[in-house]
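user: Kindly work through both lines:
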Amino acid sequence: MPSRRSIRILALVTLLGVALGCQSMDLELDDGDRFTPSGRISYEIWPGIDRRRSGALLDLVSGSSGGEPGKAVTARSAGIKPTISIDGAIAAVEGRDHQQVPADEQVELDVEIPGPQRVKLNAENLRGHIAARGGVRFYDVVSLEGVTGLGVDSTEVRLRGGGVDTTEEEILAGFLLGARATVRPIPLFDLYVQYLANFTELWEVIQDTEVGVDLNLTRNLSVFAGYRWWKYEDESFGSDSDWEIDIRGPTAGASLKF
């Protein structure tokens, strides 16, 4: 007949086997309708914003055409021209979600949280970039441009559940690549779509996609609004669970142009 000591040892071994059998699972944060405030500044080296058609909101209100209608303005904007600009931008967003951890799995962010458990996920992101943008502009109506530069990303993730509340942050710099298409049917506004990918490491890419409209208040100032998708996949939080974060929603801000 087994002794009490052998029973306790058997129970301990069984519990240890269960614990060792737990698999770490990835964390997925998926949040929609999150507002992303942002701002942009741009310097157009060529052909220069003074070569663009007049007709911003201030021009319409003041009655200024920036030149004789149908002549000087058309001459300035005629033809197919190369474009070169230097851009800077900054944006911020926060997302929240929940995830169920099964009984035979666990999640980890410095501290392990075994299942079964429902955990709360939170992510805060602040990002910016400085880049060169260049391509071709057709008759001051359609612009097709590529983007390349340096992107910096600060992402803080928070994991709560089972009495645990833990946070970790990463600041990453990477090589930025992307593209932008713009349509200016009239000088009052621009319609645009932009995709940027920040290659922070060989296999890690932070993606930022935006569609929207610029309302040109003056030749140098506009306000914009649209919709934005931001995707972040992290496999470098030490030995912790991998994160996949998808946050989307409206965006708005101001843009300075020189």
Notes: The mean pLDDT is 86. Residues 227 and 250 are 4 Å apart (CA to CA). DSSP finds three helices and 13 strands in the chain. The chain has one domain: 23-257.
